[in-house]
Design a protein that fits this description.
The complex is a heterodimer of chains A (231) and B (276). Chain A has a single domain (2-230), classed as MetI-like (MetI-like fold, Orthogonal Bundle). Chain A is 80% helix and 0% strand. Chain A has ten helices and no strands. Chain B has 276 residues and is of the alpha/beta class. Chain B has two domains: 2-107 and 224-272, Periplasmic binding protein-like II (D-Maltodextrin-Binding Protein, domain 2, 3-Layer(aba) Sandwich), CATH 3.40.190; 110-221, 3-Layer(aba) Sandwich (D-Maltodextrin-Binding Protein, domain 2). Helices cover 44% and strands 24% of the residues of chain B. In chain B, strands 1, 2, 3, 4, 5, 6, 7, 8, 9 and 12 form a ten-stranded mixed beta sheet that branches. A two-stranded antiparallel ribbon of chain B has the order 10-11. In chain B, helix 6 crosses helix 7 (150-162). Chain B is globular and about 55 Å long. The chains are: A mainly alpha (231), B alpha/beta (276). At the A-B interface, helix 2, helix 5, helix 6 and helix 9 of A face helix 1, strand 2 and helix 8 of B.
Chain lengths: 231, 276
């Protein structure tokens, strides 16, 4: 129990003192995960909606693959991205390994299937309901897509939050491709792993509490936005 | 409405991505050092690197992994400088044409930690091989790094001297954690097991539980660290000039003095020995 008390007081004092190192790590975590969510949304929403609305050969395979990819192991994604970005790999010349950009790439790969697969389900349900009506108004699937996405915006917000949750919580991928370099690629999850390996469990747990509060904050902000939009 | 929200989302994404680009421009002068958890986790780099960075304006980016993984990263050209602790592998690295030249930097020692109760009765022994034989004979739990790190290679070398085939015992009393020194110490503390650890990590480690140092002082527990510039002939993108500056500074009287001055609770962690 004393561990939890120490962790809590650690978390509080880190926040109250506005620890500069902590602020840097929190900001980088948000920057990396939000950038990944943004890119994954740009890919995932249209991909998911297209898979829902168009009929083409191989569609079912895409649905199954996307669903399966929701469970991609972060450490495998990290390894693959590492091998691709390593100087010995095909994209090595870009020098992206051990940078925040590499971490964004890895997290994007990790979460775009989640956003695409959940979008596919949401839009498919809507499309089944409204397809006839929209077609009678002369809308092709391509033209109906923005309407459906807009209609589903509240469900899609939850979808995007699921992606954000996955991105901000994973440690396996960013550890490998980022390298947990102080002031450069250290984020909340890798900092927690580092403190665990130093045996400072109370500090690690304190950081964990801050990370969870951060997730709560982001989800809460999304909820407020959504309520405000609903009027 | 749809268009407006897309524009908003785009702007949001731009704002989120913007600091990244400015960041990468500002930190153009840097070298990447592949090193071990034992140096990074002990706090050595936090203590000495700011001095070098202030003096030269070169940022030192340390990627702390096991020695085996660090060497692989350096072989791939993903680091400019290699700073590890397994002389045999380091020499092979240079001989293989991956590194320019190897220099001694500093040393400390390994020790065997174990539960206070000392079920294998090894406390105070100065012969580490004899101690490990006793642990094996008692089948007392022993946690191995099992991760191809410098410490792991050292431990396997010592087991070889005992003539005991521990790999065949893996999963019984001999347990391979497959993780870094700190995580392995956490595991050993939780299992009340014996463990081979480097002194740097041990002194800075905070979750020792019932573990205490049981065996130390054997010459075979010597732990030498070396530094090598990755060969720019092999990997032309290696920042040879800045990497060499860092190596020169580590080996210089000032760098060596800083290493010697680094202490935790009044105890020195590393003894500089660049000049033999």
């Amino acid at each position: 129990m004393s561990d939890f008390a120490a962790a809590f007081s650690n978390a509080v004092s880190l926040i109250v003192e506005l620890d500069a190192g902590l602020a840097e790590i929190v900001l980088l975590s948000l920057r990396v995960s939000m950038s990944a969510v943004f890119i994954a949304t740009l890919i995932g929403l249209p991909l998911g909606a297209a898979t829902a609305m168009f009929r083409f050969p191989g569609r079912m395979s895409i649905v199954v693959v996307l669903n399966a990819m929701m469970g991609l192991p972060p450490v495998v994604v990290g390894l693959v991205v590492y091998l691709l970005l390593s100087r010995a790999g095909p994209f090595g010349v870009m020098g992206l390994l051990f940078t925040p950009a590499a971490m964004i790439i890895a997290q994007t790969v990790l979460i775009f299937p989640i956003i695409a697969a959940l979008t596919r389900q949401v839009v498919e349900d809507l499309w089944e309901e409204y397809a006839e009506q929209l077609r009678s108004l002369g809308a092709t699937p391509a033209r109906a897509m923005p309407t459906l996405l807009w209609d589903a915006r509240f469900s899609l917000l939850t979808t995007i939050l699921a992606g954000f949750g996955r991105a901000s919580a994973e440690v396996g991928a960013v550890m490998i491709v980022g390298g947990n370099i102080d002031h450069v690629t250290r984020v909340m999850t890798t900092a927690i792993a580092l403190e665990v390996s130093k045996g400072d469990l109370a500090l690690a747990l304190g950081l964990g509490m801050i990370l969870i509060s951060l997730s709560l904050g982001v989800t809460g902000a999304a909820f407020v936005m959504r309520e405000a939009a609903r009027g | 409405m749809v268009k407006k929200s897309i524009v908003q989302a785009l702007l949001l994404g731009l704002v989120a991505a913007m600091p990244l680009t400015s960041n990468s421009v500002a930190a153009d002068k840097f070298v990447t050092v592949a090193s071990t958890t034992s140096t990074a986790n002990s706090g050595l780099f936090d203590a000495i690197l700011p001095v070098f960075e202030k003096k030269t304006g070169i940022q030192v980016r340390v990627v702390a992994v096991g020695t085996g993984q660090a060497i692989r990263q350096a072989k791939n050209g993903d680091a400019d400088v290699l700073f590890v602790h397994h002389k045999k592998s380091e020499k092979a690295f240079v001989a293989g044409g991956f590194g320019v030249k190897r220099f001694d930097v500093m040393y400390n020692d390994f020790m065997v930690a174990g539960p206070k109760a000392d079920p294998a009765k090894v406390g105070g022994l100065s012969d580490v091989v004899a101690a490990m034989k006793k642990i094996a004979a008692q089948q007392s739990p022993f946690v191995s790094r099992g991760d191809d790190s410098g410490t792991h290679k050292k431990e396997l070398g010592l087991w070889k001297e005992t003539g005991i085939d521990v790999i065949s015992q893996s999963g019984t009393w001999y347990r391979e954690s497959g993780s870094g020194m700190g995580s392995t110490l956490n595991t050993a503390a939780a299992m009340n097991a014996y463990v081979l650890a480097d002194r740097g990590t041990w002194l800075s480690f905070k979750n020792r539980g019932d573990l205490v140092v049981q065996v130390q002082g054997d010459k075979r527990l010597f732990n030498q660290y070396g530094i090598i510039l990755v060969d720019p002939k092999r990997h032309p993108h290696v920042k040879a000039e800045m990497g060499q500056m860092f190596i020169d500074w580590i080996l210089s009287p000032e760098g060596q003095r800083r290493i010697g001055e680094f202490t935790i609770d009044g105890k020195g962690l590393f003894v500089p020995n660049a000049n033999g």
